[in-house]
Amino acid sequence: MKTRPIIPWLYLFAASVLILFFLVYPTINTLFISFKDSKSIEFIGFKNYLYVFTNDATKLAIRNNLLWMIVFPVITVSLGLLLAVLVDKVRYEKILKSVIFLPMAISFVGAGVVWRFMYAFRPVEVGQIGFLNWIVVTAGGKPLDWLSRGPWINNIALVIIGVWIWTGFCMTVFSAAYKGLSSEILEAGKIDGANEWHLFWKIVVPMLMPTISTVTVTMLVFSLKVFDIIYITTNGLFDTEVLANRMYKELFLYWNLGRASAIATILLVASIAIMSISVFHRSSQVT
Amino acid sequence: MKRLFAFGLLFVFLVGVISGCAPKPEVSPDDEPAPDVGDQQIEILGPWGGLEQEALEKVIAPFEESTGIKVNYTGTRDVSVVLSRARSGNPPDFYISPLPSVTTELAKDNVLVALDSFMDMDKLNNAYAADWLGLASENNHLYGIFGPVSIKSIVWYSPVYFEQKGYSVPNTWDEMLALTEQMAADGVAPWSIAMGSGDATGWVGTDWIEDIMLRTVGPEVYDQWVDHDIPWTDQRVKDAWEIFGEIGLNEDYVFGGTSAELSIDFGDGADALYTDPPNAYMHRQALFLYDFIRNHFPDLIPGKDIDFFMLPSINPNFGTPALSAGEMLIMFRDTPANQEFMNYWADVEAQVAIAVHFGRLSANKLVPSSTYDDPLLQKGAELLSTADSVRFDGSDLMPSSIGAGSFWKGVVDYVNGKDLDSVLNTIEEDSKDAY
């Protein structure tokens, strides 16, 4: 019998040590801390988790995360797919795609600052500095406080910032996959008398399904991690807080290590759950 | 099977390596090498940047010249930097603590130097009011000396527009409400309220409620409230919120309504008062706003075009109390150079420099009133020293999850239309958990 090669293990050794030290150890440590009190001294069981699921503020943050997880992927994925198919049909495809992709090149904090100006509110008596309210006032309307008008207007306004950033990414991925579709199938469909609508729903969407599910998962995970946009615009006031913002406050403002770690663990578990669904989904497709 | 075993062995080995080099949190601060006596440096961390940092450097300069000790200041708004450095045994020499709650928190962790161990307490007691020393004390030890302080209970107005309209400065809360009513009837919003403050939005509203608490229930109950000895659901607390609500929730009384109240940045709060024509007549905000007003309206003359009056009394039994705020210097390392700097900071000479360069007030009683060459600063100093009682900004004394969390959020929610009882219940629930 051949002996098991030892060389691969030696090659992997350095990387394994690094991963264990920088990834596995902190994760396990966070898990430990999440069962301890605010100063990480005594074990208090599941109290931190109980707090996250019973406190009004954290329950609201969970609600907002769910809202993000529903609205954000739906808009980015459908808009991205639509744009990918549409830009393929126009002459200035490259320029259009670059423009739509551009927000991706701006940092999230930068995007937050930009949109804070877009949504800026001033009383009607003084000049508007916000673009949206300038349009509203020029059209003869009353300025609207987009970011403090809850519970839906401001949350949707924040989701739109995320959409602005990420739609270009979705479009680029879909566009690449769309161009990878063999033209024979589309032409065969056309010869059989299918119109554009049928082609899109009966051929393009089913064939792009693996890409769609991967992008959707990416967007879902982003909705769980969203932080910068909200930190810059409302800092979670006006009922817009999400779990990541709550975690930041618990850690850096309230110095409650236990609760911050509990929220981190919950977010991690949720992300892993979502990602593993997609992995299972894909492996079941392969077999 | 063999592969699993090999992997298991590797895992056990690695766990051993990791746990062997895991950082040991218990590092004694005494292990730090003592700084050289010949070429000395002092490191100060603090929340100030920009203009305030320049002011601090001007205050420090004479000390550096006379002692030859170099002082390095680094500004950071991130309190957690200081906390984590202090707890891991590597603190800076000094920190300019923005909140008394931070000072007491650090004092309880036994990482601060008690100033009474080397300073002349008789001299300090002579120079500083007991209130100011008390705010910097924990367990009968003094841990900090205040730098620039500010009076918060003042209402900015324009004497010019008041005269034009025939309005007079109110002496009681009822007079103020009557004036408010009259201004609204004349067609201009009486008040400008500006709560916007980025990630700190809400503190302006908490100041209003603190000022009203001081005026309706007096300093003793105020202290109980700050210490959470009376609940947030107490009728007296609820009354204070409602008194604020009479003005703050009235769309006709506030310029731009509650939407503007929540959106306009606090630094722009007085802009509505000094434009031509004005969009509002009164604005309650601390003395530090003076810097903003002079910046935005450099042509206006202090005392003639710009002025303020004390937020009037509500219950005559408690007179006219003042709400105050300020930052204090606290010390982590006990070295001769640090002792020297702390003594310098507390001394009249440095405190005069603080008042002059920061354009605020000094907590040191020995600072002569002639130091304040500006009529409004002089007035502020006088109002602070003649107030019937002085209390520190309560939200700065509460645990940060309340004072910089639930309380801020509660005020914002209240102004944004949430039911007061549910707002107070939420803060009470959070308080039970935080104290």
Description of the structure:
- The complex is a heterodimer of chains A (287) and B (435).
- Chain A contains twelve helices and no strands.
- Chain A is mostly helical.
- Chain A has a single domain, classed as MetI-like (MetI-like fold), CATH 1.10.3720.
- The radius of gyration of chain A is 24 Å and the shape is flat.
- In chain A, 32% of the residues are buried.
- Chain B has helices at 2-21, 50-67, 79-87, 100-108, 121-127, 130-135, 159-165, 173-185, 203-226, 235-248, 257-263, 271-274, 289-296, 336-346, 348-358, 375-386, 400-415, 420-434, and strands spanning 41-46, 70-75, 94-97, 137-138, 141-142, 144-151, 154-157, 189-191, 280-284, 307-310, 322-331, 361-362, 390-392.
- Chain B is built from 18 helices and 13 strands.
- Helices cover 49% and strands 14% of the residues of chain B.
- In chain B, strands 1, 2, 3, 6, 11, 12 and 13 form a seven-stranded mixed beta sheet that branches.
- By secondary structure, chain B is an alpha/beta fold.
- Chain B is globular and about 70 Å long.
